[in-house]
From TrEMBL:
Lineage: Eukaryota, Metazoa, Chordata, Craniata, Vertebrata
Pfam families: PLDc_3
GO annotations of cellular component type: early endosome membrane; late endosome membrane; lysosomal lumen
Keywords: Exonuclease, Hydrolase, Nuclease, Repeat
Catalysed transformations (reactions): Exonucleolytic cleavage in the 5'- to 3'-direction to yield nucleoside 3'-phosphates
Species assigned in the record: Oryzias sinensis (Chinese medaka)
Molecular-function GO terms, alphabetical: exonuclease activity
Protein family: Belongs to the phospholipase D family.
Name the UniProt record assigns to this protein: 5'-3' exonuclease PLD3
C-alpha cells in the first residue's frame, strides 16, 4: 500500500498535472474506516497509511489531516504530540493566513472531554519566533481547578562540541500517541504540510492485544515520556525568555 503512494509520487514526477480522479490502480481499501488487519510482531493490529495533500489521495485513501483529527477524536484520556514545528498558520503562504484545524481540535477536546494534552516541540536556531506566541496561547489552556490540562515543553538538543552540521542537533520527530493509537508521520504540523506538501503517515491501533508484549503504542508512549521528563525538555511558561533556550 505504501508502494502505491510512492508510485503516485513517481507518476507526478513525469506529469504536468494531477489526475482527477486518480486511476484505479492507485486506489486503496485501507483507511481509517477499514484499516488493514494483520499481526504486527505477533500482535493483532489495525493499520492504515494516510497521505497528503488531498489532491494526491486516490480513492479510498484517508488524507493526513483527517487522520490526525480522527486519532485525536478517538482518544479517551491523553494525546501526546512530538513535532519539530507547530504552527496554526499557512506557514509559507502570502498573504499570511491563519489555519486552526489542529489547534482548535486540541482546545475542544481539552475542554469538552478533559483530555490531557502534551506537546513536545523542538526549539533551535531555525525555529520561527511566531511559533511561540501560539504555543503559549495553547499552554494557557491549563487550570487544574477546571480540569483543563494542556502543557507545552520545548525540546533542546545541546550543541555539538565539534564542527557545526547544518540542520542537525534538533529533534525531527513528527508523531502522536494516544491511549489507543500510535501515529508516525513525515510532516511538520502547520497548514502547508497538509494542504500543499506531499507526506504520509502510519497509523497503528493495537488496543485489541491480549499479549503481554509491548505494543507500538506503548513503546511510542515510553519514548515520549522519556523525552518529556529528560534534561533536554523545558516547560514553556508565559514569561519565558526563549533566547535562553533556543
Amino acid at each position: 500500500d505504501l508502494g502505491k503512494i510512492f508510485e503516485a509520487y513517481w507518476f507526478l514526477g513525469a506529469s504536468a498535472s494531477i489526475p482527477s480522479p486518480w486511476p484505479s490502480s492507485f486506489s486503496t481499501q485501507f483507511n481509517k474506516d477499514t484499516p488493514l488487519q494483520l499481526a504486527l510482531n505477533d500482535t493483532p493490529s489495525s493499520i492504515y497509511l494516510s497521505s497528503s495533500p488531498p489532491s494526491f489521495c486516490a480513492a479510498g485513501r484517508t488524507p493526513d489531516l483527517q487522520s490526525i483529527l480522527s486519532v485525536m477524536e478517538d482518544a479517551e484520556s491523553f494525546i501526546y504530540i512530538a513535532v519539530m514545528n507547530y504552527l496554526p498558520t499557512m506557514e509559507f503562504s502570502k498573504p499570511q493566513r491563519y489555519w486552526g484545524d489542529i489547534d482548535t481540535q486540541l482546545r475542544r477536546l481539552a475542554y469538552e472531554r478533559r483530555i490531557k494534552v502534551r506537546l513536545l516541540i523542538s526549539c533551535w536556531s531555525n525555529s520561527q519566533p511566531v511559533m511561540f506566541p501560539f504555543l503559549k496561547s495553547l499552554a494557557s489552556v491549563h487550570d487544574p481547578k477546571s480540569k483543563l490540562d494542556v502543557q507545552v515543553r520545548l525540546f533542546v538538543v545541546p550543541p555539538n562540541p565539534g564542527p557545526e552540521i547544518k540542520y542537525a542537533r534538533v529533534n525531527h520527530n513528527k508523531y502522536m500517541v494516544t491511549d489507543k493509537v500510535a501515529y508516525i508521520g513525515t510532516s511538520n504540523w502547520s497548514g502547508d504540510y497538509f494542504v500543499h506538501t506531499a507526506g504520509s503517515a502510519l497509523v497503528v491501533n493495537q488496543t485489541g492485544s491480549q499479549s503481554e508484549d509491548p505494543t507500538v503504542q506503548s513503546q511510542l508512549q515510553a519514548v515520549f515520556e522519556r523525552d518529556w521528563e529528560s534534561d533536554y525538555s523545558t516547560p514553556l511558561s508565559q514569561n519565558a525568555d526563549l533566547t535562553a533556550y533556543c
